[in-house]
Specification:
Helix content is about 40%, strand content about 20%. With about 220 residues, the protein is an alpha+beta fold. It folds into two domains: about 25-145, Beta Barrel (OB fold (Dihydrolipoamide Acetyltransferase, E2P)); about 170-210, no CATH class. The strands form two sheets. It has a five-stranded mixed beta barrel with strand order 1-2-3-6-5. A two-stranded antiparallel sheet has the order 4-8.
Length: about 220
């Protein structure tokens, strides 16, 4: 008889294989929310899934060109049927994927427009680097700035302090409406920590779209 340990390892390996197969899946879905310049919420079989665009890193919404980048992505994908080529699950539980509208690679288009950086840590495409160099040379989008700050550096300098502020100041009090929120971080805190369901009326996991994403 096989030991319980051996059976356990077989089960774990089977589960990992199943998960990896799911992560490598291609499927069609509708984009229902644009959260920023490289993150969207899709609807597949009536299930909302948060997707991070593969191979790029867009400016944060509070960063210079952050809103421009998000609006560019809104123009490209919002309320459209897209093809999702899933690659992995990131540390935040988001599906990392390439998204295409018809034959248009959305990650490539965002870089070509100067609305995102190439995510050099994970990029495998010389074509994508060429598109970024072209955007730099013609000063498109964020490259029109004198000294554009990469999102990873901006996050290091800003996001941690914002999250600390929310953690130190946000409490589960009487706030029940999006109009009472002062940031997306605060809205997320009240939804996830205080269970204020009124902040997410459509049950898509994104509170207060006026703070946390574009839906129309």
């Amino acid at each position: 008889m096989k030991s319980i340990l051996e059976i356990g390892w077989v089960a774990v390996l089977f589960l990992l294989g199943t998960l990896n197969a799911a992560y490598a899946e291609e499927f069609s879905a509708k984009v229902i929310v644009v959260l920023d310049g490289d993150t969207v919420l899709i609807l597949r079989d009536n299930m909302p899934i948060k997707v991070r665009l593969a191979e790029i890193d867009a400016p944060e919404k509070a960063q210079a060109f952050g809103e421009n980048s998000m609006q560019s992505l809104v123009e490209l994908v919002l309320n459209k049927q897209v093809r999702v080529d899933s690659q992995a699950i990131d540390d935040y539980g988001r599906l990392v994927a390439l998204i295409k509208v018809d034959e248009l690679n959305v990650s490539y288009e965002q870089v070509q427009r100067g609305m995102a950086w190439v995510y050099s840590r994970f990029n495998k495409s010389e074509v994508l680097l060429g598109l970024q160099n072209g955007a730099k040379k013609t000063k498109r989008g964020l490259w029109a700035q004198t000294d554009p700050i990469p999102p990873n550096k901006w996050r290091k300098d800003n996001i941690t302090s914002q999250q600390q502020y929310v953690a130190q100041n946000a409490t589960c009090g009487s706030k029940r409406k999006c109009s009472q929120m002062n940031s997306c971080d605060e809205a997320n805190f009240h939804l996830s920590q205080c269970n204020v369901k009124s902040l997410d009326r459509d049950n898509d996991g994104v509170p207060c779209e006026n703070w946390c994403g574009a839906t129309e």
